[in-house]
Prior knowledge:
The structure is a homodimer.
Chain A (H helix, E strand, L loop, with lengths): L1 E6 L3 H14 L10 E8 L5 H13 L4 E10 L7 E5 L3 H9 L16 E5 L4 H11 L6 E5 L1 E7 L5 E8 L5
Antiparallel strand pairs in A: 1-2, 1-7, 3-4, 3-6, 4-5, 7-8
Amino acid sequence: MKYGVVIFPSKTLQDRVNGYRKRYDPHYALVSPHITLKSPFDADIDDLDSISEKLRKVAAVHQPFSYHVSKVKSFEPVNNVIYFKVDPNDTLTSLYNMTHTEHFPGEELFPFVPHITIGQNLSDDEHSDVYGSLKMDSIDLTEIADRFHLLYQLENGVWTVHETFLLGKDA
Amino acid sequence: MKYGVVIFPSKTLQDRVNGYRKRYDPHYALVSPHITLKSPFDADIDDLDSISEKLRKVAAVHQPFSYHVSKVKSFEPVNNVIYFKVDPNDTLTSLYNMTHTEHFPGEELFPFVPHITIGQNLSDDEHSDVYGSLKMDSIDLTEIADRFHLLYQLENGVWTVHETFLLGKDA
């Protein structure tokens, strides 16, 4: 089974991001807008309790935090993903580091660049057009995160939440 | 903002239900297969912490339980919803009762009939055809529930999980 760990932004920001994703992101219907803390990884359903337990401990040693969404960026030339940049901060980095130890399955293909995807799988021309127009938009949002979620993927590609982990709550 | 409380069945059952919903349920893309414990209700975002706190207490006083999915049924003539019937059981009834007190917003239009929707918004003819063929399918599944989820709805109609509540865990 495939799992992943994400933070969902506020409803207001999710609605705004979906305004773009509806047009520019073929994954629009599969998962709500999110910051990926841990990319999709395979794990056996029998390991799920142990993974949840470890995530509960990770959540317990972090406090709710604010993060800043500062601009529209793209991962080109690596890939044609357009995203809202989330400025790095200590808590995000620590959450990432603690979910990427030998205690968790999964590997990352790229270094951690916190972001909220607004478009992907675009042709080079589309990407260039869309990115050219979106990067003019001024973004300056501060969001609060007090939880993260462990998701699993259904056969139809849709991600469902298995469990929520509240930051700063006893494990 | 609109909220709801649901139980998601196992991935295996969700995948099976989605096989039907893809064809027969226009809400297919909006929410994963579920048992509704509390129908969509309006609440102010400022009341969310208090609602979560109360749901945590409801979860704490129940233990994980098994439930039986026994057949395909329809709510006709009330409406053209085709569903997997979930046999009533004490824990489900108690979860329903405790989330329908004066401490929670929301009202139910119908008595509690636990079910997992597999088709809805069908024309009378479609409903009759589909139900006629599906009700021959023999269903006899036992599922374990150890959690429920508080969801909220985005502007595009999609339901996102706000929080998971584990049964039998201290509030």
